[in-house]
């Protein structure tokens, strides 16, 4: 949906101007691309960097940069869970905030050393390249507060894709009390 939004934003109609293949499992898109399917592919890291390293492709744009700030990763819980487990939610949110503070105050090399055990299949050199790319794109949020502008953009993208029956007020779905408390 974000790719289609970016295409439309740049005057390209995804229904008439391109032939978009959407029936390939996301885990297999890089392989399909290197096998000759398509002229472009949309990839997450580390697949994008792997394609570059193989000489099979180049990162030409960032959907995140081109779309505007979209709250891609969010954490959801039922009201009943929040009421019964506020201490867990507070601790989790503090941990997220500490991680964000760490990422925003350390170099790509320092971060790569910390996260390397979670990415055994990716070299430290590639992790540093990916982290630098994300830093240059201003990918990382500074804090866990879910802002209304990002929420509105997400709804716009969902609505334009025909996936939203009606817009929902920010206050109905977003509770920033834990995020704000984590910042203190």
Question: How is this structure best summarized?
Answer:
The chain has eleven helices and no strands.
| Radius of gyration based on Cα positions | 19 Å
Sheet with the most strands? Answer: none
- Count of DSSP-assigned helices: 11
Q: What is the strand content? A: under 5%
The chain-level mean pLDDT equals: 95
How many strands? 0
Helix/strand/pairing class, anyone? mainly alpha
What's the SSE pattern? Answer: HHHHHHHHHHH
Principal-axes shape call: globular
Portion in helices: 40-55%
Q: How far do the termini sit from each other?
A: 36 Å
Can you tell me the residue ranges where pLDDT is under 50 for at least 5 consecutive residues? none
Topology of this structure?
Blueprint lengths: L1 H8 L19 H6 L12 H8 L8 H5 L11 H6 L1 H18 L4 H8 L8 H13 L11 H13 L9 H4 L3 H6 L2
Helix pairs in contact: 7-8
Word description of this protein:
Helices cover 52% and strands 0% of the residues. The protein is mainly alpha-helical and 184 residues long. The chain is globular. It has helices spanning 2-9, 29-34, 47-54, 63-67, 79-84, 86-103, 108-115, 124-136, 148-160, 170-173, 177-182. The model has no long low-confidence stretch (mean pLDDT 95). The longest helix is centred in the middle third of the chain and has 18 residues, at 86-103.
Name the descriptors.
single chain, 184 residues, mainly alpha, globular
């Amino acid at each position: 949906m974000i790719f289609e939004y970016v295409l439309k934003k740049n005057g390209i109609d995804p229904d008439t101007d391109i032939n978009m293949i959407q029936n390939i499992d996301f885990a297999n898109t890089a392989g399909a691309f290197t096998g000759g399917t398509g002229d472009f592919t949309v990839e997450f890291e580390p697949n994008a960097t792997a394609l570059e390293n193989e000489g099979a492709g180049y990162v030409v744009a960032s959907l995140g940069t081109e779309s505007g700030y979209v709250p891609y990763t969010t954490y959801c819980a039922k009201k009943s869970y929040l009421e019964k487990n506020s201490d867990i939610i507070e601790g989790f949110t503090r941990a997220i905030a500490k991680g964000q503070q760490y990422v925003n105050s350390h170099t790509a090399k320092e971060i790569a050393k910390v996260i390397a055990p979670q990415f055994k299949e990716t070299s430290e050199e590639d992790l540093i390249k990916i982290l630098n790319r994300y830093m240059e794109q201003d990918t990382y949020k500074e804090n866990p507060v879910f802002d209304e502008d990002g929420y509105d953009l997400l709804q716009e993208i969902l609505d334009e894709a025909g996936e939203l029956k009606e817009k929902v007020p920010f206050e109905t779905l977003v509770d920033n009390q834990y995020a704000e408390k984590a910042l203190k």
